[in-house]
């Protein structure tokens, strides 16, 4: 970028610098190579997306700051029209599902129950590409205790917290779903309508890069369910879903065992279901059945997230 001393140019430069605060040169280069992110025109890219907001007066865009719009550009590799479409869908999804986002915080009783029961699990370490690994142990779903919608809310809230980390906006996420001991009775509660709600929330309306969705130990009726939801999945999503069955070797070819807990044949200790709930809830964490309402401090969460161990990724590997 050439600075000519004009106030506008200086502001643009400061904005760009501010948006990359804390990012290593390697990560900035990865964003350039993989996401087409150009620091020299970052401000203009963001403004072009913001300028499109007037085309959708039917949607309440509740947040339009630079840092927020940037995560949508990254999620769509800086294709501005696609980024705007995702931004619009993000707020439209919230408008259409108001009840889901009422009291959308960790101490909401439904969300808190789901978090304490391990929905989702979030590994402290990243994989070798710097991606965050989320876990779902499907059989832990006690349907008398957690509604599917509350589990989905807990997952979306967790992603909201994690996506504040700029490195995760660039590196993305991995999701592993373990279907061991997931009963046919439990599966029968996964109706097409609630599965579609989840797909719309995660695939169509959230600014995250999912590098892979891995099914492990899935029974035949999960294959049947997958066939049912396939028409709602984008080609890109379908290509990133891997059905491993009980073949952990194929999982390990994509995610190194030293990044995984022992449940997935990894070298890490078994996953402690309360890990992520304690991170989100802090001193409010309690696995008792009494739920207290206290304020949800996002800054505490962001601080906790930034201090998590990263033993698994001493340096980020290029994909």
From TrEMBL:
<dbReference type="InterPro" id="IPR011074">
    <property type="entry name" value="CRAL/TRIO_N_dom"/>
</dbReference>
<protein>
    <recommendedName>
        <fullName>Clavesin-1</fullName>
    </recommendedName>
</protein>
<keyword id="KW-0968">Cytoplasmic vesicle</keyword>
<dbReference type="Pfam" id="PF00650">
    <property type="entry name" value="CRAL_TRIO"/>
</dbReference>
<keyword id="KW-0472">Membrane</keyword>
<dbReference type="GO" id="GO:0030136">
    <property type="term" value="C:clathrin-coated vesicle"/>
</dbReference>
<dbReference type="GO" id="GO:0007040">
    <property type="term" value="P:lysosome organization"/>
</dbReference>
<dbReference type="InterPro" id="IPR001251">
    <property type="entry name" value="CRAL-TRIO_dom"/>
</dbReference>
<dbReference type="InterPro" id="IPR036273">
    <property type="entry name" value="CRAL/TRIO_N_dom_sf"/>
</dbReference>
<comment type="function">
    <text>Required for normal morphology of late endosomes and/or lysosomes in neurons. Binds phosphatidylinositol 3,5-bisphosphate (PtdIns(3,5)P2).</text>
</comment>
<dbReference type="GO" id="GO:0005802">
    <property type="term" value="C:trans-Golgi network"/>
</dbReference>
<dbReference type="InterPro" id="IPR036865">
    <property type="entry name" value="CRAL-TRIO_dom_sf"/>
</dbReference>
<dbReference type="GO" id="GO:1902936">
    <property type="term" value="F:phosphatidylinositol bisphosphate binding"/>
</dbReference>
<keyword id="KW-0446">Lipid-binding</keyword>
<dbReference type="Pfam" id="PF03765">
    <property type="entry name" value="CRAL_TRIO_N"/>
</dbReference>
<keyword id="KW-0967">Endosome</keyword>
<dbReference type="GO" id="GO:0031901">
    <property type="term" value="C:early endosome membrane"/>
</dbReference>
<keyword id="KW-0333">Golgi apparatus</keyword>
<feature type="domain" description="CRAL-TRIO">
    <location>
        <begin position="111"/>
        <end position="272"/>
    </location>
</feature>
